[in-house]
């Protein structure tokens, strides 16, 4: 087939920083075309090509490229890398990867990653920046604690207590902090205050997004879901109707048992931990808070929680409650105007 015609039904793109490898397949699925393009030439190429199904692996620039190709009239689909791997033949290289992607995107049972809107990507980026700031704060506090221990000084557990103890240690001229170590700790204290300011700004930005988004406000009516979890759900899931039911969403997040069954014998293990680890963490932490603060006499979840705690370990109850919260959230997201209804407490 002539390369100039660009008349192909399926394409696979192996995404790189500057160079993209493209494999094209005809209507029968046979690979008949290979080419290597730079980023600007790639867009020009597909702007002239006839509409086709274009597959690519999920990576940092796949969302941008999928939106760009969709605007050009193509059907852009993103796949997880582990689902593409079985279609790779012979040795691994960029062009063989593109051919494997082109074959994988044709499979009728293939699972695809949702293509998100730009505002959803922006909100997800805000969450990631905030998470990094929290990690930086933890690293800095741990380092400061270790340096203080080198001089025989300790700070109490917890971030609030640490922030009260460090100024006191720096002001105490009678302790064993050497002048050099005092300067180092003072520098860490200033860095911590800067991180705290940025973290506060990021948290306030997330909370503002939650207040301004109608769907996030409805999600926050669910016990265990606050501004962080609500906005994380709306930004990470994309279109909730991509999931047929709530349990599919729970499985995608990794809140269901991992299965290893054979010969008709079902074996269920711990949670699968698939999908979005950040979402899973927020939902489980929210479930733990819900267990403590939920008014069990007035909420329909109360009797269910009481019954579960009699049979299961507290950590299993937290994961089971996170699973239930996720399924409730899916129902709200797929039903216009729906909110959480506490209902009448009933026995499980």
Describe this structure in words.
The protein is α/β, with parallel strands linked by helices and about 350 residues long. Helices cover about 55% and strands about 10% of the residues. The protein is built from 13 helices and 7 strands. The protein has a 5-stranded mixed sheet with strand order 3-2-1-4-5. It has a two-stranded antiparallel sheet with strand order 6-7. β6 (about 255-260) and β7 (about 270) form a beta hairpin. The longest helix has about 35 residues, at about 180-210. It is globular, with a radius of gyration of 26 Å.
Largest sheet: 5 strands, mixed
Q: What sort of overall outline do the alpha carbons produce when their principal axes are compared? A: globular
Total of DSSP H or I helical runs spanning 4+ residues: 13
| Termini gap | 64 Å
Averaged pLDDT: 90
Low-confidence stretches: 1-5
Fraction in helix: 40-55%
Taking all Cα atoms into account, the compactness measure Rg is 26 Å
**Strand segment tally:** 7
Task: Give a brief outline of the structure.
This protein is α/β, with parallel strands linked by helices and 348 residues long. Helix content is 54%, strand content 11%. A five-stranded mixed β-sheet has the order 3-2-1-4-5.
Key attributes of the depicted protein:
single chain, 348 residues, alpha/beta, two-stranded antiparallel ribbon, 13 helices, 11% strand
Secondary-structure map:
Elements: E1 10-14, E2 19-25, E3 31-38, H1 39-48, E4 53-57, H2 62-71, E5 75-79, H3 81-84, H4 94-104, H5 118-149, H6 159-171, H7 179-212, H8 214-219, H9 227-237, H10 246-253, E6 257-259, E7 268-271, H11 277-293, H12 301-311, H13 314-334
Helix pairs in contact: 5-7, 5-9, 6-7, 7-9, 9-11, 10-13, 11-13
């Amino acid at each position: 087939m002539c390369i100039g015609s660009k008349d192909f039904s399926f394409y696979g793109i192996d995404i790189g920083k500057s160079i993209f490898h493209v494999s094209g397949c005809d209507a029968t699925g046979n690979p008949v075309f290979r080419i290597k393009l730079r980023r600007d030439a790639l867009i020009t190429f597909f702007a002239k090509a006839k509409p086709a199904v274009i597959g690519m692996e999920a990576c940092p620039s796949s969302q941008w490229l999928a939106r760009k190709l969709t605007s050009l009239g193509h059907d852009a689909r993103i796949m997880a890398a582990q689902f593409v791997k079985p279609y790779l033949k012979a040795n691994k290289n960029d062009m063989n990867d593109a051919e494997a992607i082109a074959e994988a995107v044709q499979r009728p049972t293939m699972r695809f990653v949702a293509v998100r809107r730009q505002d959803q990507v922006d909100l997800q980026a805000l969450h990631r920046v905030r998470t990094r700031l929290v990690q930086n704060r933890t690293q800095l506090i741990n380092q400061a604690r270790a340096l203080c221990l080198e001089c025989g000084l300790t700070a109490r557990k917890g971030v609030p207590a640490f922030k009260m103890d460090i100024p006191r240690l720096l002001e105490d001229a009678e302790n064993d902090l050497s002048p050099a170590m005092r300067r180092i700790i003072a520098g860490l204290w200033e860095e911590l205050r800067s991180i705290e300011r940025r973290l506060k700004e990021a948290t306030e930005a997330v909370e503002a997004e939650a207040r301004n988004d109608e769907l996030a406000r409805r999600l926050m009516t669910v016990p265990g879901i606050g501004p962080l979890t609500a906005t994380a759900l709306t930004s990470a899931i994309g279109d909730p109707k991509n999931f047929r039911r709530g349990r599919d969403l729970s499985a995608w997040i990794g809140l269901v048992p991992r299965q290893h069954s054979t010969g008709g014998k079902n074996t269920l293990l711990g949670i699968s931990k698939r999908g979005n680890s950040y979402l899973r963490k927020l939902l489980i932490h929210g479930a733990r808070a819900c267990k403590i603060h939920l008014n069990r006499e007035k909420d329909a979840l109360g009797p269910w929680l009481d019954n579960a705690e009699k049979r299961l370990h507290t950590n299993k109850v937290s994961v089971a409650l996170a699973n239930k919260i996720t399924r409730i959230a899916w129902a709200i997201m797929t039903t216009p105007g729906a909110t959480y209804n506490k209902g009448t407490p009933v026995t499980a």
